[in-house]
Amino acid sequence: MTTQAFANSKPAISLVVMTDLDGTLLDHYNYSTRAARPALKQLKALGVPVLFNTSKTCEEVAGLRHDLDNLDPFVCENGSVIHIPKTDGEGYNSEILGTSYVDILKVLSQLRKEGRKFRGFNDMPASEVAALTGLSQESAWMSKQRVASEPLIWNDTELALTAFRSQLEQAGLQLTQGGRFYHVMGRADKATGLAFARDFYQHLWEQPVKIAALGDGENDRAMLEAADFPIVIPGEKQILELSNPAAVTAPSKGPAGWNHCMLELLEQLQQGA
Ligand SMILES: [Mg+2]
Predict the structure, then answer these.
(1) Are 185 and 173 in contact (CB under 8 A)?
(2) In the chain, which residues fall in CATH 3.40.50.1000?
(3) CATH class name, domain 4-96+189-272
């Protein structure tokens, strides 16, 4: 039985780790975290929290948190929402950092009435999401459990898309382009999640904290730029170049690179402590 949802005792070093999942902690092809296990084990032994910061939904992340015995808070839907486990271990307190799903759907419904042509996850049964993404029916259902962002397919011209984008901006929302879908969300990104985590742990531990962030994609850029120890994991298509002078690039992709750089950082910080 879990008695403590996440460590509120200060770790040996005042560090928080924040990580992207796909292509970063998870292997791009087989979704395994195996190569990162040595570093994850050492972080756990030190009491350093490891916060996932992902485009996935809360439901999609639950299995991985369980597999890794991860009890720390986590950020979903590209920085739009942070889930903080309750201290009794049952469920989460969720803080929306962007705009709530209901408010996003209200704006989309109004724009549809004005003639904008799109089809969002809210309009699709799980079977349709499964067909579009290649996910299983169950995974598709989990990806439909949105809290603060809406993926959609655009069914009109580029010109109409430009108008749609500016209408969303006027409503306080933004449109980002992902691999398969456009995403409508509030004014948050993965750096919003990092700022929340910094503040949260500084209050909890009553001391300044350093944040190590790991990511491989364009949507990780703002998070990496805001980190004290940014670790770039080489992506499938590109290697992010940051202006943050503390940035290091991992020697290999995915969890192997994650492991290498994290062990190196821990050694460096423990020597300095
Ligand atoms: Mg990624």
Answers:
(1) yes
(2) 4-96+189-272
(3) alpha beta
CATH level 3 topology of 101-185: Threonyl-tRNA Synthetase; Chain A, domain 2 (3.30.980)
**From the CA of 41, how far away is ligand 1's center (Å)?**
22
Please state whether the predicted TM-score (pTM) of the whole model is above 0.70.
yes
Residues of the chain with CATH 3.30.980.20: 101-185
Q: Could you list the active site residues?
A: 20
Q: Both tokens of residue 172?
A: 């306080």
Summarize pLDDT for 8-52 with one digit per residue, the tens.
678 889 999 999 999 999 998 889 999 999 999 999 999 999 999
Cα of 111 to ligand 1 centre, how many Å?
31
Count other C-beta atoms under 10 Å from residue 90's C-beta: 9
> What token pair was written down for 13?
């070093």
| Helix or strand (DSSP H, E) at 215 | strand 210-215
**At residue 53, does pLDDT exceed 90?**
yes
What is the Å distance from ligand 1's center to 57 Cα? 14
Task: Check if the beta carbon of residue 85 is closer than 8 Å to that of residue 5.
Answer: yes
